[in-house]
Design goal:
CATH topology: Hect, E3 ligase catalytic fold
Largest sheet: 4 strands, mixed
Number of domains: 1
Distance between the termini: 39 Å
Structural class: alpha/beta
CATH architecture: 2-Layer Sandwich
Shape: elongated
Helix content: 25-40%
Mean pLDDT: 76
Number of helices: 7
CATH superfamily: Hect, E3 ligase catalytic domain
CATH class: Alpha Beta
Strand order of the largest sheet: 1-2-4-3
């Protein structure tokens, strides 16, 4: 059986494929280079509507107790609630002063520069979330750490004693140590 000459169909996507490799220069030949640059290397601009529900609560960030030690974790519930309220206020402030902060946070927690297309009008259908898991085995000296495959950030059960400034400093250190460190060379 003869192998078809795919290069003859230059007006179709079939021309992209060759025997055993892709001609990447043809993949994006009809797309402006600025658009390709934004898709490949850009960060999603996360709007306030994407981040917060109409009632002012987080749209896709949710707290989670230590499942292995729930009774011990619940002892710190007041600190965790104060921390979560502080986080809400921190993100509201960051929207005004540093719009890229939220995108970097999402990237740090998920490994992705983009959040899924959320139904902004029906929050019950949005199953995607970043979980802030309060873990009883972690101390306040520990930097925030993440499991990007699970969209989970691990925090001490004491939530840095509810101090959002301490969290912000530790988050910055943690993000600086990990963000953009996985080069594809």
């Amino acid at each position: 059986m003869a192998i078809p000459n795919l290069s003859a169909a230059s007006d179709s996507y079939a021309s992209i494929w060759r025997i055993g490799y892709i001609q990447w220069n043809n993949c994006f030949s009809q797309v402006p280079s600025k658009t390709v640059e934004k898709i490949v290397f850009g960060r999603q601009e996360i709007s306030e509507q994407m981040m917060f529900n109409p009632d002012g609560t987080f749209r896709f960030i949710e707290p989670a107790q230590d499942l292995e030690r729930p009774e011990e974790s619940s002892v710190h519930a007041e600190k965790q609630a104060r921390f979560f309220e502080g986080l809400l206020e921190l993100f509201r402030t960051k929207f005004e002063s540093d719009p890229s902060y939220i995108s970097n946070f999402v990237n740090f927690c998920t490994g992705s520069s983009y959040i899924p297309d959320l139904d902004l009008h029906n929050t019950e259908n949005n199953k995607w979330a970043i979980r802030l898991e309060y873990n009883c085995s972690l101390t306040d000296e520990r930097l925030p750490s993440v499991f990007t495959c699970e969209n989970t950030m691990l925090l001490p059960a004491t939530a840095y004693d509810g101090n959002i400034e301490t969290f912000e400093k530790k988050l910055k250190i943690s993000m600086n140590h990990t963000m953009f460190k996985f080069d594809m060379h």
